[in-house]
Amino acid sequence: MIPAAFEYHRPQDMAEVLAVLEEHGDEARVMAGGHSLIPMMKLRMADVPHLIDLQDVGGLSNIDIGDDSIRIGAMVTQAAIIDHEGLGAVAPILREAALQIADPQVRYMGTVGGNVANGDPGNDMPGLMQCLDATFTVVGPEGERDIPAREFYEAAYMTAREDDEVLTSVTIPLPRGGYAYEKQKRKIGDYATAAAAVQIENDGGTCASVAIAMTNLSDTPVYSEAAGAALVGTSVDDVAIKAAVAAMLGDIDPTEDNRGPVAFKKHVAGVILRRAIERAWSRA
Amino acid sequence: MKDEVTREDRVANLKGLGCSRKRVEDARFTQGKGNYVDDIKLDGMLFGDFVRSPYAHARIKSIDTAAALEVPGVLAVLTAADLEPLGLHWMPTLAGDKQMVLADGKVLFQGQEVAFVVAEDRYAAADGIEAVEVDYEELPVIVNPFEALKSDVVLREDLVAEDGSIPPGAHGPRKHHNHIFTWEAGDKGPTDEVIANAEVVAEESMYYHRTHPCPLETCGCVASMDKVNGKLTLWGTFQAPHAIRTIVSLISGIEEHNIRVISPDIGGGFGNKVGAYPGYVCSVVASIVTGKPVKWIEDRMDNLMTTAFARDYHMTGQISATKEGKITGLKCHVTADHGGFDACADPTKFPAGFMNICTGSYDIPTAYLEVDGVYTNKAPGGVSYRCSFRVTEAVYFIERMIEVLAIKLNMDAAELRRINFIRKEQFPYTAALGWEYDSGDYHTAWDKALKAVDYDGLRAEQAQRVEDFKAGKTRKLMGIGLSFFTEIVGAGPVKNCDILGLGMFDSCEIRIHPTGSAIARLGTISQGQGHATTFAQILASEIGLPADSITIEEGDTDTAPYGLGTYGSRSTPVAGAATAMAGRKIRAKAQMIAAYLLEVHDNDVEFDVDRFVVKGAPEKFKTMKEIAFAAYNQAIPGIEPGLEAVSYYDPPNMTYPFGAYICVMDIDVDTGVPEIRRFYALDDCGTRINPMIIEGQVHGGLTEALAVALGQEIAYDDMGNVKTGTLMDFFLPTAWEVPNYETDFTVTPSPHHPIGAKGVGESPHVGGVPCFSNAVQDAFRPFGNTHTNMPHDHWRIWRTANELGLHD
Ligand SMILES: Cc1cc2nc3c(=O)[nH]c(=O)nc-3n(C[C@H](O)[C@H](O)[C@H](O)COP(=O)(O)OP(=O)(O)OC[C@H]3O[C@@H](n4cnc5c(N)ncnc54)[C@H](O)[C@@H]3O)c2cc1C
């Protein structure tokens, strides 16, 4: 478990990062916390002749809470999400989800930017960000552009970000209503067997709006518009939840692995979503 | 005047038997000051690592090392062709098979060692490995032992004669080219007859899946050949350093006095570090060839995929009883998957270990066991993962069969156990499959356990839960796991037990220093068990010097007396006995010295805690400290100076620790997630040397039991690829997954052990696995479940619920 030799770059600002990326093309890759990238390099599944460490690049570690949105810098760690008090008050789902990622050691290193840019269907934050309708800001040789989280993921490890672009921040509209991040895993430090992110609004006993996204049940996160549609306008009773689960099952496409066969994963996805909806609704 | 020192104070000062003395090892471990193999760094040390086969079964057409030799820092690449002239391309396994050190023309399992790259550091070695080009021709893969016994594919051409006949193996005749041995115990005819005529017979087939001991520290070594004095020093993760020295001498031809084997601190073994591995041989050869020290350390994937798996037993059982539940007979057949080489770590006469302890804690008059060993395209091994030889398999088998019989009889499984236990007055008890159980008091332990958990209350709660479940009020079922186990530990007796011809005695050598402190060296080696703490306690009570004044040393073959090492819970039963016996020799000499100093006859003094006193005149005494000084510095007529002793102990029998475990579990039927609400563990390991260490051992063993029962496995796909090669998929529980354990005990001393101790480190694993498994199975019993195979991970539990129609 030793990576192939690589050149280590430690630029001091974004311009320098982009210059190294431009110079080495797809031979170069940025590293944030390194807790997805380094294991892949050690297994020699990722070949990165030029590794660009982002940790000295300023301005990527802020959490700004505005009147109607939250901006999280790409290098904010999962631990920082958990510890940030203001964030816990305005967007508690972030904390609930982050606490279910990996273990404390990994969370001290792993970043929001790395987690969403990685493109691994097992990562929890992509689904979470789709649920929250986040926007990812990337910067490249052509300047800055925004990509909605719901349009970012194309296939496993394939995203709308170009190789020469760097993700700088994630912007989330202030979430409203009840929330839940529900995840089943085999043990601490494991990726999800199935996970569901739900943010739901209650208007006098009727569901006014809801967003639902699922994790590790397809080669990308699954934002299930249909599942949400099944709940809006209902009292979120058993019939409505059943319809939402059925709609979600139409959107996911899990594969068999050591966590279990497809039938099991679909069943658990349904159970997890039901629990997430019920918990979120109870908080709405 | 000082306050008067009472006898109690003097006993406490010794920190001897029964004292929860803090572990003396922990100061260095908790400060990161341990000295493990990978901490050893020598001048000019090189690093070796393996090119491993990506295929489970393939012919090697060619190996091209040219590009690897061009990699900066790479000095040499060894292949079978280089080792063959030295006769070192293969090595004998502990089971008497031939294991290739480097693959010679063919690979038999994924991860098999193909070439050894020697480089200036481990980074260059890794690059060199990438550059070695091996041309393979894939062959049909067999990962199922039942298929192997039917297949035309010959896995081991080297074990088939030229005329196509199949010569016998190390354990007798072989039935098929992929068959290794058949081993029997008990009487087949009478057992068949009892079962045929029985009032009730229960049958079950079960698969005890393949898993792996997975110590935190992987295997490794540093070999250093000093060409000037001809001496080879080998540091390594060896659970049996002396045996390794002898084996290295036998296979390398280096005289044994020129080999020094050192086991430094070891980060867990659990059986994984008993055997000899190609890495050791290659490091030695590489050091001889280069004249420099060579280090080899496995990474985690190497460890999980290649060195010493455990279990992989397909077991079929029949158990017969009267209508009242009195067991009359037991039959067991095992198809044992040994992988590509038979590298089981068992005493020579026991190719299936002590599987014949499978009558368990029960008075079963007639029994028969048959085990067939089979080759497949999986890694070799078959070690005793935190148990005495195959005892985990045996106990799992009988504790499942008891449950299956209880279902058949529609009887409470606790009661079924109670009416079949061997009774206290039957000990020493000779079981139908041959073992003589030294001691036991099962009924007392069982009753204490059932009472502690309010067993009847639990059953009532469970019945209510089933009602609630059926009424749609809950989706959680409740399981009560029962297990009563008897271990067989402490191999020895040399007349029964040897490994590769090496008798399984053990040893202790004691030197008392003039000022009344001491050093004792043993033939065993701690891997975390706390020997330096507990053996000093045994000695403290025997010789009356404080444990804090006694250093315990193990693991250096140049200084320690010969012994067979630490595994199978043999250290306390065998080396612990040697320690007590050597201590008694010290005491005998001390008695003569004391008598001389007190000017009385030898028989007129008696030992009292830390001194010899004149009988009837306790104010006349000599402390052991005074005696030690006199032993060296006073001319005593007829007595040699000095105070030393050595004992080589060949135990008359094994010891038979036992225990009663109960687990209460809640199972989410919809997700398959089990939650352990309660775990009660009563252990009887005879005399308790250090209760705190016992508790620690029980916690550790139970945690490894939980792992195995609930998810830990080495799984292969049909192509022989290991599917669980990292800790992402190989389940190693953390503090998060582990429940609170309630520990308890009874004390039934071993009648033949000098201090009555029995060994405890493995009991919790042996008893724990069936207890966790039985809890899962019991939760589904009301819905018609009789047996499901481990590991009970989420999806398999879910599958059970699904197959029983519990999902709509
Ligand atoms: C034992 C273990 C358990 C884990 N369990 C979970 C889990 O349960 N759930 C979960 O979600 N994750 C889990 N992870 C992954 C962890 O959260 C990672 O830290 C995270 O996936 C990536 O974040 P990082 O900062 O470490 O990124 P890195 O590993 O540094 O990078 C990951 C990828 O993203 C790219 N990248 C990083 N930053 C940027 C950027 N700013 N712009 C463009 N590209 C970028 C890198 O080039 C790389 O391809 C686990 C990891 C480990 C080691």
From TrEMBL, chain A:
Stored InterPro entries: CO_DH_flav_C (IPR005107), CO_DH_flav_C_dom_sf (IPR036683), Diverse_Substr_Oxidored (IPR051312), FAD-bd_PCMH (IPR016166), FAD-bd_PCMH-like_sf (IPR036318), FAD-bd_PCMH_sub1 (IPR016167), FAD-bd_PCMH_sub2 (IPR016169), Mopterin_DH_FAD-bd (IPR002346)
Keywords, sorted A to Z: FAD, Flavoprotein, Oxidoreductase
Protein name per its UniProtKB record: Xanthine dehydrogenase family protein subunit M
Matches recorded under PANTHER family: XANTHINE DEHYDROGENASE SUBUNIT C-RELATED
Domain FAD-binding PCMH-type intervals: 1-177
Molecular function per GO: FAD binding; oxidoreductase activity
Domain of life: Bacteria
Pfam families: CO_deh_flav_C, FAD_binding_5
TrEMBL record, chain B:
Enzyme Commission number(s): 1.2.5.3
The protein's assembly and partners: Dimer of heterotrimers. Each heterotrimer consists of a large, a medium and a small subunit.
Required cofactor(s): Mo-molybdopterin cytosine dinucleotide; Cu(+)
Reactions mediated catalytically: CO + a quinone + H2O = a quinol + CO2
Protein name per Swiss-Prot or TrEMBL: Carbon monoxide dehydrogenase large chain
SUPFAM superfamilies on file: CO dehydrogenase molybdoprotein N-domain-like, Molybdenum cofactor-binding domain
Chain's role: Catalyzes the oxidation of carbon monoxide to carbon dioxide.
Keywords, in A-Z order: Copper, Metal-binding, Molybdenum, Oxidoreductase
Organism superkingdom: Bacteria
Lineage start: Bacteria, Pseudomonadati, Pseudomonadota, Alphaproteobacteria, Rhodobacterales
One Pfam family here: Ald_Xan_dh_C
Protein source organism: Sedimentitalea arenosa
Occurrences of domain Aldehyde oxidase/xanthine dehydrogenase a/b hammerhead (ranges): 31-140
Gene3D superfamilies assigned: Aldehyde oxidase/xanthine dehydrogenase, a/b hammerhead, Aldehyde oxidase/xanthine dehydrogenase, molybdopterin binding domain
PANTHER family hit by this protein: ALDEHYDE OXIDASE 1-RELATED, XANTHINE DEHYDROGENASE
